[in-house]
Amino acid sequence: MEECRNQSGKRQAPIGVFDSGVGGLTVVREIMRQIPEEPIVYFGDTARVPYGSKSRSTIIRYSRQIIRFLRTQGVKAIVIACNTASAYALDEVRKELDIPIIGVVRPGAKVAAKVTQNGKIGVIGTEGTIHSRLYTEIIHEIRPEYEVLGRSCPLFVPLVEEQWLKDPVTEEVASRYLKELQDSGIDTLILGCTHYPLLRSTVGKIMGEKVTLVNPAYETALELKSLLQKEDLSYEGEEPADKYRFFVSDDPTKFQKFAEWILPCSDAETKQIRIDEY
Fold it and tell me: How far apart are CA 106 and CA 117, in angstroms?
């Protein structure tokens, strides 16, 4: 009986999600869509963004701090909703945890390897994600003969955060970034940064209808749903009053506005915490 109560308590616990800033909210949005019954605790490291230009050791240290904070919130599973942190820290922190943890890289890589027709796959992301070559490694685990081409697009993040999704400036920048991939003959392109799904229409317009765009945020939500079912952790019970909780490491004002812009339900208050204390 005690074991049943403990398992029920685990099912009612929230999912922990973290990112270097606001981009991981695209993953939260997909989780809300695919498994809407699940409570979520989100942490955005807005004081230390961006992660894409930082070292592996720094990102592992940041990730450990954030995970320690999320554990104080009683989470039952964790999603690293950041491509760079998934690439650099996931394997390291997984060894230290007794709850499930997944990142956004492997789900996107698996789908890209499955849907490509000509074996030529492009990846766009931060400098850290591209230099890690993790997408390439995972795709080559599945199909060693596939060609994977990476391109860092550092200006995409600030353009998204300015909400310039269909601005002529954004289209010009995207055209320059994507020219090499256009000429390479890829038929599949991974949107390898959590901000990039918000530029999907612009990227799709430039790459053309023959190129399949893979959104790792969507694929991660599906993998999380499958994981929760497998581990018998899918939510059961009445909807909690504090279903969605948001935390950041800097002034929450800008984050709150961004959350209200992209999330279907974002009336939860965002609180600032001192992440260095964890």
Answer: 19
Tens digits of residue pLDDT in 149-194: 999 999 999 999 899 998 999 999 999 999 999 999 999 999 999 9
Closest by CA position to 20, among listed 172, 214, 157, 140: 157
Question: Angle CA(36)–CA(81)–CA(168) in degrees, nearest 5?
Answer: 95
What is this structure's pTM? Answer: 0.91
> Is residue 265 annotated as a catalytic residue, yes or no?
no
Catalytic residue among 4, 153, 193, 265: 193
Q: Which CATH number fits domain 106-216: 3.30.700.30, 3.40.50.300, 3.40.50.1860, 3.90.190.20?
A: 3.40.50.1860
CA dist., res. 34 & res. 218, Å (int): 8
Instruction: Give per-residue pLDDT as tens, 224-244.
Output: 999 999 999 999 888 888 899
CATH number of 2-103+219-277: 3.40.50.1860
What pairs with residue 212 in β-bridges? 188
Which residues make Cβ contacts (< 8 Å) with residue 78, sequence separation at least 6? 15, 16, 17, 18, 67, 70, 97, 99, 100, 101, 102
Is 193 assigned a catalytic role? yes
